[in-house]
Amino acid sequence: MNFSKKLIKPIMYLFVFSSLIYFVEAFQSIMMIVTALLLISFAKFEDFKISRKNAPFLFSFIILAFYYILFYSSKSFKLIAESLLLFVIPLLSVYLYKIETFSKDLKKIQFAYSICLSLLCLYFLGFYIYDIPNHHFDWYLARYNLEFYNKIHGTYICLWIAIAILFLADLTSSFKQFPVHKKALFFIMFVLLFSGLIIYNSRNIIVGLIIISGVRFLLLKKENTTISKKLIFLVLFAVLAVVLLSRRYIEDIQFLLDNSFKNSTRYAAWSCSSKLIYGSNFMGMDFNLIQDKLNECYVPFHNPELEKFKINSHNQYLDYLLKGGIFMLLAFISTLFIKIKYSIKQQNYLYLSLTILFVISFITENVLVRQYGMYGYFLCDILFLGSILGNKNHSRNEIEKH
């Protein structure tokens, strides 16, 4: 056990560092597996009891495992392993909060992740500037070039950036107390992160950050906490900058004026997914058949994009309805409810913000289907889920007092 405790720090730093070398996906996979094994080494399974806090997570895994083993025509142990990482292993993070070294290093781990994403955004910004002769500030072409050459989907890198922004906002909550050089560093990091967000410009992630800002504002107001007018101005300025510096929103409005939402690929994906769900009587279906059946449903839309690319449901809730039926959807939503409820109860507003970010991102993407999405979700749960699952002594507020 003592040896395992010594491994926490290097493993967690390597885990967040894997975001910097995102293009080596195998390294991320290895670090998720190593982190899972580390947590298992801490677990005392004889003391582990099913409670209303952890039951939704366990049921989510059991339901998916049942479908992946018994219901589908071909078993998928890979998907079972992924479900284990998403729903069971994070429950063991409660044991991390019993280890003093983890408590001391938590904010440093947040900072390390924010540094990694800031460096990535610096690279993306440099690539964007270098690529100006090719895209001429055309947002769609610029993002296409970024995704094509850098091999990462815009929504997922924006999700990673948003997590870094929330981490950094939490770290700078006592901004006035920092020396000038640290203030300068944090300012530069915020500029880089927001630059990356503007360049890739994923709408649901940006909307998520705006909603989170609103929620945090209401919570602070409810607690009669003095809210800086400068902070409100900065948030509004950031929102306006994103909207005005990108043509995307203007072109979206123009599209809706000239066309119907029914002409969009998103509508096709959601409507066809709904048909399959209804056809399965809300009890799920063979995951091996889902994409082929979606492709068949797309034919009447006569949309070149639907014909060229294998478009999935683009909604995590619909994805779990397709794969595990209504029971899986209810179990999954219950895990999110648990996170929100106890984050508010224990005033862990960082984890609340992260959960809201994922709840919103799930509306327009199958986030937990791709490794990049799994990585972000797994990272946040490993770092913070244990703080709300344990007793009061394990809460984030108690830890920060030590």
Molecular structure report:
It is found in: Membrane. Residues 189-333 form the O-antigen ligase-related domain. With 402 residues, the chain is mostly helical. It folds into two domains: 2-255 and 315-401, no CATH class; 259-308, no CATH class. It contains 19 helices and no strands. α5 crosses α8, α8 (154-171) runs antiparallel to α9 and α8 (154-171) runs parallel beside α18. The longest helix has 31 residues, at 100-130. The radius of gyration is 22 Å and the shape is globular.
Q: What's the count of strands?
A: 0
Q: Output the radius of gyration.
A: 22 Å
The number of distinct helices, counting runs of at least 4 residues, comes to 19
Low-confidence stretches: 393-402
- Through-space gap between termini: 22 Å
Mean pLDDT: 87
Secondary-structure element order, as H and E?
HHHHHHHHHHHHHHHHHHH
Count of the separate structural domains:
2
Main beta-sheet annotation: none
The chain-level structural class is mainly alpha
Principal-axes shape call: globular
Helix content range: over 70%
Task: Note the beta-strand portion.
Answer: under 5%
Short recap of the structure:
The protein is an all-alpha fold.
Secondary structure layout:
Elements: H1 2-17, H2 25-42, H3 55-71, H4 77-87, H5 100-130, H6 132-135, H7 139-150, H8 154-171, H9 180-200, H10 203-222, H11 229-245, H12 248-258, H13 265-279, H14 287-298, H15 304-308, H16 316-345, H17 349-364, H18 371-389, H19 396-401
